[in-house]
Design brief:
globular; six-stranded antiparallel sheet; single chain; binds zinc ion; mainly beta; four-stranded mixed sheet; 18 strands
Length: 188
């Protein structure tokens, strides 16, 4: 498995270069987001995901930033490994391209609407402005996806940390089940 991403910087003629993960997210950094997160920590502190990101033209209007996320398979209690999730501050859409693994994209608005999308290799997901997003690995292998977003985008992780995501994905007897929290509406 890749431990770093290689970026082909063909225009600048400096060849390829490799970046280390900018973030290695362990359970201890988001234990309170899982129903049984604190209990699971007594058994260990697994790496949930690693992510890389690059911004080739920082601060330049209408440029693009992009990155990869490798989300490991596994369960915390009955909940699948997932990303922390965030809103974007102000306007700013994002595109995800899945190239390995199986997952669910969860999205929610600030006024309590929730939507989901199945993810599999080849899925291209457009995440409109105003929708927070979180990715859940419901498969048995690492879920790998490319993310592309506008330069200068500011992230709001705090709202999800404070309010939760409005839904959870748990491992049921017949596969993943979505549970929507009170006060949230699922867009069918
Ligand atoms: Zn985002």
């Amino acid at each position: 498995m890749l431990d770093a991403i290689v970026i082909d910087d063909f225009l600048n003629g400096i060849g390829n270069y490799v970046t280390e993960p900018v973030s290695v997210r362990k359970l201890s950094a988001m234990a309170q987001m899982y129903l049984e997160g604190q209990a699971a920590l007594t058994h260990g502190d697994p790496v949930l995901y690693r992510s890389w990101s690059v911004e080739p033209a920082p601060g330049v209007d209408k440029e693009l930033a992009f990155g990869l996320t490798f989300l490991n398979p596994g369960l915390i209690g009955k909940e699948y490994f997932m990303t922390a999730g965030h809103f974007h501050r102000g306007n700013g859409a994002e595109v995800h391209v899945i190239y390995e693994g199986r997952g669910l994209l969860l999205m929610r608005t600030r006024d309590g609407e929730v939507a989901t999308k199945r993810l599999e290799p080849g899925t291209i997901a457009y995440l409109p402005s105003g929708w927070a997003h979180r990715t859940v690995n419901v498969g048995g292998e690492v879920l790998k996806f490319l993310c592309v977003w506008p330069t200068g985008l500011a992230h709001d992780y705090e709202t999800i940390r404070r309010e939760g995501f409005g839904c959870r994905v748990i491992a049921g007897l017949n596969g993943p089940e979505l549970i929507t929290a009170g006060g949230y509406r699922l867009r069918e």
